[in-house]
Amino acid sequence: MIQSKAPDADRITVLVFKDNFAARTFKVSLGWISRLGALLGVILLIALVSTVFALKNYRALRHTDPSHVNELEQELAGLKSAYQALEAKKAAEPEIKPAETLPAQVPAANMTAAAPPAPVATQAEAPATAELFASFPKGTQAAPDFGSPTIAIDSPKVTWSGRNLQVRFNIQYVQTQGSQQGRIVLIARGPRALLGYPDGIFAPSASGYLVSPDKGEYFSLSRFREVRADLGTVVDRGSLREVEAYLFNQHGQLLIHRTIPIEASPAERPAPARKATPVAPEPPAQPATQPDTPAAEPPASGETPNAS
How far is the first Cα of the chain from the last one, in angstroms, to the nearest whole number? Predict the structure, then answer.
């Protein structure tokens, strides 16, 4: 193939030779060649940029924790099941008809004047500022009962490991299908101490309540979940007596409240009382006897004893 420039500057004449046949010629515009080069450059640039972004996203996905995605999917499934349960409960409830209006004319015999209620001595309500704080935020209440609980606490145990208080129990999902999400709050209390788990559940003093349920440890389960919590180091073991476990759903409603006593460590458990061995009764004490005193000699004949 031989290339040569045509007299006009914007075209290229191409000569094609094959065997001994006559040469064939055709002309190609330089503008088309430049456009084709620009198009190929743009395609190459797009492919390069796409490759860079694909590699970046691939590296980000490799470092992403898939458990969070699973938790979100389970939470969506739980919300869907709760919504379906509410719809089923609403459909099962009888429809409440609006109250019918009373007739305009009422017989006079049926009209009786109701006596005014007797005044009841009630204690004046204290102002809102008189309440120092509540245990949980205002409006916290038990979760609605749909017939049977969804979760239960199994094998609760609170023990000492040195000076560290450890709480162990299992959360079981007792329904046949579905899942449950929520928060775990643990409060250890006693005559001289108050501890909370996890860190940050105690609300600021200006909030008006003591514990923030939304700061509890998140859980999501469809079958079983083990809870292992360390409440921290305690100097005096006698300052704590029991641990209260609170389980809330994702809406802040109370699902379970359980009080777990603290088990005494083996060193603190009292030793078993020994059986008392029977003791033979002692013989009664003999009365003390005075030593014999020698009898006074009788006076001689003719002598009279001196009167003392």
Answer: 177
Q: What is the pLDDT of residues 277-300, one digit of tens each?
A: 666 666 665 655 555 555 455 555
SS3 54: helix
User: CATH 2.60.40 occupies which residues in the chain?
Assistant: 151-261
Three-class secondary structure assignment of 35-58: HHHHHHHHHHHHHHHHHHHHHHHH
Nearest to residue 13, comparing CAs of 27, 23, 2, 34? 27
Instruction: Indicate the DSSP class of residue 108.
Output: G
Q: What radius of gyration, in Å, describes the C-alpha atoms of the chain?
A: 48
- Token duo for residue 182: 């929520």
Of residues 226, 235, 157, the one with CA closest to residue 190: 235
248 DSSP β-pair partners: 183, 254
C-alpha span between 252 and 212 (Å, rounded): 9
Tens of pLDDT along 34-65?
889 999 999 999 999 999 999 988 887 777 66
CA 46 to CA 52: how far, in whole Å? 10
pTM, entire model: 0.45
User: Per-residue pLDDT tens for 152-168?
Assistant: 999 999 999 888 999 99
Q: Residues 5-18: what's their mean pLDDT?
A: 71
Could you give phi then psi for residue 268, rounded to 5 degrees?
A: -95, -10
**Per-residue tokens: 101:** 């209006």
Is-contact 248 216, C-beta < 8 A? Answer: yes
Q: Which two tokens stand for residue 260?
A: 């777990």
100 burial type by CB count under 10 A (0-12 exposed, 13-18 middle, 19+ buried) = exposed
User: In sequence order, what are the residues at sequence separation of 6 or more whose Cβ sits closer than 8 angstroms to the Cβ of residue 229?
Assistant: 166, 167, 168, 184, 186, 197, 198, 217
Specify the fold of 151-261. Answer: Immunoglobulin-like (2.60.40)
Of 258, 246, 243, residue with least CA distance to 189:
243
